[in-house]
Amino acid sequence: MATVETGIANGVSFALTDEQKELRALAREFAEKEIRPHAAEHDERQTHPAEIVAKAHELGLMNLHLPESLGGPELSAFDGMLVGEELNWGCSGIGTSIGANGLAAGLAPLLSEPILGCFGLSAPGAGSDVSGIQTTAVLEGDAYRVNGSKMFITNAGQASWIVCFASTDRSKGHRGLTALVIPMDAEGVTIEKHLDKMGQRATDTSAVAFQDVVVAAANRLGGEGDGFKIAMQTLDFTRPGTAIGAVGVAQAAYELAVDYAKERVQFGMPIAMNQGVSFLVADMAAEIEAARLLTWQAAWMIDQGYGRKATKYSSFAKRYAADTAMKVTTDAVQVFGGYGYIKEYPVEKLMRDAKLFQIYEGTSQIQRLVIAKEIFLG
Ligand code: CAA
Hints:
This protein has 378 residues and is an alpha+beta fold. The protein is built from 10 helices and 10 strands. The protein has a 4-stranded mixed sheet.
């Protein structure tokens, strides 16, 4: 008879193959040995973890999405979830630095060197409202002239290029947005500021300015006006990856809370003996599992080619996993009590890191908006 462990019952399986278990174990080992020991230092100093990114690249834990036609591993989105959870369990700042290439275009140079691309969607005045992007790209002969600025761009300060979403026709709103691949060393591109963040401090997040940047029309992704849909399709693909990062952070907080609740003695017994504590932990365990399964489902749907039908499920995963990570890490701080609130113990960092999952790649409120639109208009 089929079991959860052995595999398929009624066409549903939660079982991982041996290869998937090995991949997950490899990522966990990497997170344990290469990420965790350096996480606090990068958090404290807000430094880019270049050496760790390079090691992840060498080990094949980066750019998992790149197609075989470019020489990439072309792993499934599902397999990407297994790696992403573990890297983010190690440190979500470092995990995001390694994983954010999934947002940038899949270009071959990513394979030969541990280089980074970045996704230039958000702007100072256009975060949730993508159609409000003010950056302009004007076609002059066979090149565009780009002017404007971008805000909150992950890895921008370390990236070799940016996929910049700019308006080629302001009168058309979202239908006037166009995606351009711009080298970060192009004349007129400047990093205006490395932003000083509350959490995920090992990931560079920067403000970028474009002043009369000339970029060849050949660097356009898709056609003029395709930018909005390219951005949405990218986010449909990457939101499960963000969701699983949140699961990794929640799992880390949960494991620490369980160990601490068993060790910490108050009133003559481990605090785990109190329902006030054990029920918090029980809820953590159930909600993390639910978040993981929602995320696995969304990734599986992407792999099965559900396309637009996966949009709602990507947002289910992102919304639920981000909110779960916030709740679980907040409760983990509670389990640790006063020790949870000081930097000597690791859970306060997890709580700061978790907050960003409710904001980037579409806030929890935007995920609800997407879900509601899919329900009522889809
Ligand atoms: N796939 C393909 N097409 C889509 C789509 C999708 N998932 N979602 C919408 N569209 C299409 C619609 O069908 C519609 O098409 P038509 O032009 O043919 O009518 C068009 O796009 C416009 O759709 P909406 O009317 O729904 O657009 P909207 O202006 O109301 O905005 C939104 C929708 C969901 C709010 C969107 O703006 C959005 O996702 N906002 C959040 C942006 C976001 O997530 N930003 C995060 C920045 S990236 C980041 O954080 C990365 C990082 O660095 C870590």
